[in-house]
Each structure stands twice: as C-alpha cells, then as structure tokens.
Amino acid sequence: MTLVVNMQDIHKHYDNQQIQTHALQGISLAIYQGEFVSISGPSGCGKSTLLSIMGLMDTPSNGQYQIGDVDTTGLKVDQRTQIRNQHIGFVFQSFNLIDSLSCFDNIAMPLEHRNEKQAVIKQRVEEVLGQVDMLHKKDYRPNQLSGGQQQRIAIARALVGKPDLILVDEPTGNLDSKNGDQVMSLLEQLNKQGSTIVMVTHDSRYARCADRQIQLLDGQIVTEQQLMGVA
Hints:
Layout: E1 3-16, E2 19-32, E3 36-40, H1 47-54, E4 62-67, E5 70-71, H2 77-87, E6 88-91, H3 103-113, H4 118-131, H5 147-159, E7 165-169, H6 177-192, E8 197-200, H7 204-207, E9 212-217, E10 220-226
Parallel strand pairs: 3-8, 3-9, 6-7, 7-8
Antiparallel strand pairs: 1-2, 1-4, 4-5, 9-10
C-alpha cells in the first residue's frame, strides 16, 4: 500500500501573553492511499489544527510530516503552496467559494494556478462537475445555489487537480440532514473510486462512514478504530 500521509510525533503550541497552549501533543499518524479516515472529538481538541498541518496551511512546532515522498520540514511558504496545489484538495465547512465567479470558474482556479491550457481546464472541470452531478449549474454563481449544491461545487474544486489527498473539514456543518446525507454519500462514492479522504466531523453518524475513526482529546489520539479493510 502507498503511504500518503506520514506524521511522526507532531506537536503544535501557541504562545499568547506568557500562556502556552498545546493544541497537539505527540500525534503520530499514517494514512494510506484509498483510505477514508474520520477525525472527531470535542471542540478545542486539536482537530482543525491537525487538518491545517496536514494541508500545509500551518506548520508543526515539532515533529516530522511527510506527504507522499515529500518531507515538508523547513519548506518555504511558496514551496508549501506549490505542494498543496499539486497534492491536496480542500473542502471547507463554509464552502469558501467566490460569489463573483461562476461555478465553472471557481472549480477551475487550482488548474489556473498551474497554468494549464484552457482546453485541459475545460475538459477536467466538466468532468468533475459530472462526478458531483452539477454540470447543469456550471454557469451559475454560488449565491444562486442551495447549501448542498455549493458543497458539491466545493467538492468538485477539491477534486479537479486529481490530488493525492482530500481534506474535508466539517462538510455537513452548514447543511440540513438531507443535504448532509447527500454530501456524505458523494464522499463515500468518491472514496470507492479511489480518493484518499481525511474528514473532520463532530457528527458520530457521519464518522461511521469512514474506514477508520480517530478520536482526539486534548491534542492526543485517544482511540483509533478500523471499521473495514481498505480495498
């Protein structure tokens, strides 16, 4: 099995007016290609910090993080940005779509940053729009869509660059139960098609959709449960 994420003894602390907050305390974690991993735990336990470090949006205070065959220790900001663009797709709770752009243009942004040819961009964007069943909405703006539809566009944007890793932060947090169920069903389908997914969720029902459940408490992994084998 191909190792996608390898974290060794990751610590993260924040200093604020002589007070030091330990967000992560010695996290070691390996995630393999094709896995669907859920991370859950109470507010303030370090879930979002862990996802930010995994997505190269933040750096650990100590420890080693390798994504694929790239050791991220000591990388400059522009190097991290380039690796993120090439290897990682993000899905945020608040969608993070740009209302002044069409759905098509929102999804195309990661490929625009790679300076891909327009013909390649058009083909790939329409391909992922089809995957999330939103091709008929490609010329709409995000504020013309429902929350569930916006999250589908956000998922398409995460997929468009064919990332090694998709990071999903509370994907159902702003959705009603019906739309939440549909988004989770879509994530399960994408995982079956080969996507490696790490999802932070507070919803235990959705956490059970993953192959592996990780529970955090006070910046540490307290339980880890394998629900089924990786195909």
